Automatic annotation (TrEMBL):
NCBIfam families: CpaE_hom_Actino. Gene3D superfamilies: P-loop containing nucleotide triphosphate hydrolases (3.40.50.300). Residues 1-21, 367-392 are annotated as: Disordered. InterPro entries: CobQ/CobB/MinD/ParA_Nub-bd_dom, P-loop_NTPase, ParA/MinD_ATPase, Rv3660c, Rv3660c_N. Residues 135-252 form the CobQ/CobB/MinD/ParA nucleotide binding domain. Residues 22-126 form the Rv3660c-like CheY-like N-terminal domain. It comes from the Bacteria. This is Septum formation initiator.
Length: 392
């Protein structure tokens, strides 16, 4: 199963245990504490020796200062030990590293970037990355933001750790659509300067929590720019936590959207079942497919005459996911403050529930879908619920 469930059906944001630092060098300790903070974690600190072995076996990573290496001789070997040496190329230091089973000898400040990444990897684990679904509108007003919210709300309601990312600065804010514009937490402008690694746990903890999921939306300011480096850092952090990430994408491609597209496993192109909407969607699809390998069509029923089921996907030569039924009560529900996907019997909720059931629980997901990019069934000639028409 791709998504990670909590036993109580709610997301857990407990702080993961941090690394163990073994040193008596105050200057080195200050540097290591700073790097742990950059990785979004709080370490345990000891000075080596008998008491220093406490936490040696349980910490996700052990960082040893060269000053304490003599005190660690005889401590049982374990993976995930990094030795910090003043002269990392010194043969003597390498011999000491071998004695304690260190995986790497590092000098500071040259190795700071690598060490921050290594700390974050150890704390956050090396589990399967989040299944990441992007939603694009085939034309303006197609309902892509509503579908993105409904997918995220439905996933969170089922107990999956979920992050919803608003990548459309002109969309009005997904926190508004979810009724949480006053909820405390960071919005996009706060991440605009992110260039290096962002901790996955730190990212989630900083975001508003709405309907059991974390939401990265826009504030009410005038800024409408996401630097590509910031999008790359945020998307990577969100995916490293596992579970599910849903991204609401704008129809126009820029550098930031390009960074998001390359980290998306499957894109859903939502198209009202109309000829003009399908023609407009063709241009959106052509742009997105330059970076998104797996793009599929969700046709949305219209209140009046429209194209037959499956026709938008056929005209665009893209695989169909299914047809989203027309819901005459959707606008009324949104006006009453009911978020998309919250009513389990509504057509939108049923569509999303079936989507996750097939993608997350189907036999075709027995192996990680991320190895070949895209959800299972994307390969030519394969047979899956998506290739056979999905939800229509």
């Amino acid at each position: 199963m791709v998504g990670s469930n909590d036993s109580d059906g709610a997301e857990r944001d407990a702080q993961e245990p941090g690394p163990l630092i073994v040193t008596e060098d105050e200057n080195l300790l200050d540097d290591l504490l700073r790097l742990c903070a950059a990785a979004g974690t709080m370490p345990a600190v000891t000075h080596g020796g008998g008491a220093g072995s406490a936490g040696w076996d349980s910490a996700p990573l052990v960082i040893v200062g060269e000053d304490c290496i003599d005190r660690l001789r005889g401590v049982g070997r374990r993976p995930g030990v990094v030795l910090i040496g003043q002269q990392p190329d010194d043969t003597r230091v390498w011999q000491q590293a071998v004695e304690i089973g260190a995986e790497r000898v590092l000098g500071l400040p040259d190795g700071e970037s690598w060490l921050v990444d290594r700390i974050a990897d150890a704390v956050e684990g090396d589990g399967r990355p989040a299944l990441t679904v992007g939603v694009l509108g085939g034309r303006g007003g197609s309902g892509a933001s509503t579908l993105a919210c409904a997918l995220a709300v439905t996933a969170a309601r089922q107990g999956h750790r979920t992050i919803l990312i608003d990548a459309d600065p002109l969309g009005g804010g997904l926190d508004v659509l979810l009724g949480g514009e006053r909820e405390k937490g960071l919005r996009w402008p706060a991440f605009a300067e992110s260039r290096g690694r962002v901790g996955g746990g730190a990212l989630a903890d900083s975001l508003p929590r709405l309907h059991a999921l974390r939401v990265l939306s826009w504030d009410r300011g005038e800024s409408v720019t996401i630097p590509p480096t910031a999008m790359r850092a945020v998307m990577s952090a969100a995916r490293r936590r596992g579970g599910i990430v849903v991204v609401d994408l704008p129809r126009r491609l820029d550098g930031a959207v390009a960074e998001a597209l390359v980290q998306i496993d499957v894109g859903l192109l939502l198209i009202p079942a109309e000829l003009r909407a399908t023609a407009a969607a063709g241009r959106v699809a052509a742009s997105a497919r330059t970076l998104l390998r797996d793009l599929r069509v969700v046709a949305r029923e219209t209140p009046g005459p429209g194209l037959p089921d499956g026709e938008p996907a056929r005209l665009l030569a893209l695989p169909p996911v299914g047809t989203l039924p027309w819901d005459p009560h959707l606008a009324e529900s949104l006006g009453r403050g009911i978020p998309p996907g919250a009513h389990p019997r509504a057509p939108l909720s049923r569509f999303c529930t079936e989507f996750w059931a097939r993608v997350l629980d189907g036999p075709e997901t027995a192996h990680p879908c991320h190895q070949g990019r895209g959800v299972p069934g994307a390969e030519v000639g394969s047979r899956s619920w998506l290739d056979e028409g999905g939800l229509s």
